[in-house]
Design a protein that fits this description.
With 196 residues, the chain is an alpha/beta fold. It contains eight helices and seven strands, in the order αββββααβαβαααβα. Strands 1, 2, 3, 4, 5, 6 and 7 form a seven-stranded mixed β-sheet that branches. Strand 1 and strand 2 form a beta hairpin. Helix 3 crosses helix 7, helix 4 packs across helix 7 and helix 5 runs antiparallel to helix 7. The longest helix has 16 residues.
Length: 196
């Protein structure tokens, strides 16, 4: 809901990726449909599947299988002119990393504008592939990586990569807002209505 207010779209889906869960919400006619949440948050997946640093292909393959099993039933056919929005801290972290890679000669700003940053599936795969062989320490010291997200950024890239590949959307657009902000907005509207 908050992501849709920040980046209005007529049809498509909103993906909110947090530490404990992944939420998928269809959009039709500019309105949100029923949201579905699955236990595919980045912190949860990291604890469950990534015992080594860096995670070897076998661990990531097992994680991909889990993601596909949970996500495939949630996804609807891509509507004409549909767009995929994504929110959450890890989405912003990946957008920040992408922006740093796009302008390697420039010093990245301390707080780059990641809102409305578009991440095509191909670029998302490239980001993941560049980070996958790195240790946590190496990721922390990589240009454009937020140290507080360095532990889960590979997991986040894998989740979003799978969501795009399974859904058929060619890209996602990062939104600065999240489900939590949507809940706060809904509560504020409800409170204001009760006072009328």
């Amino acid at each position: 809901e908050a992501a849709l207010r920040a980046l209005p779209i007529e049809r498509g889906m909103v993906v909110d990726l947090g530490g404990g869960s992944l939420q998928v919400t269809p959009i039709e006619g500019g309105s949100i449909g029923p949201s579905t949440s699955v236990p595919l948050g980045v912190a949860r997946l990291l604890r469950r599947f990534c015992a080594n640093d860096p995670a070897p292909p076998a661990e990531l393959d097992a994680m991909r299988s889990e993601i596909r099993e949970h996500v495939s039933p949630l996804l609807e056919p891509v509507p004409k002119d549909g767009r995929a929005l994504a929110s959450g801290g890890i989405v912003s972290a990946l957008a920040r990393f992408a922006l740093a890679r796009r302008a390697p000669a420039q010093a990245p700003p301390s707080r780059p504008q990641t809102h409305a940053c578009t991440l095509p599936l191909g670029e998302l795969s490239e980001l993941r592939a560049s980070l996958e062989p790195l240790t946590l320490h190496a990721r922390i010291t990589t240009r454009g990586i937020e140290p507080e997200r360095a532990d889960v950024i590979v997991v986040g890239a894998v989740v979003l990569e799978e969501v795009l590949a399974l859904s058929g959307y060619p890209e996602l657009t990062a939104s600065r807002t999240s489900v939590r902000e949507g809940v706060l907005w809904r509560e504020a509207v409800s409170y204001a209505g009760s006072k009328l």
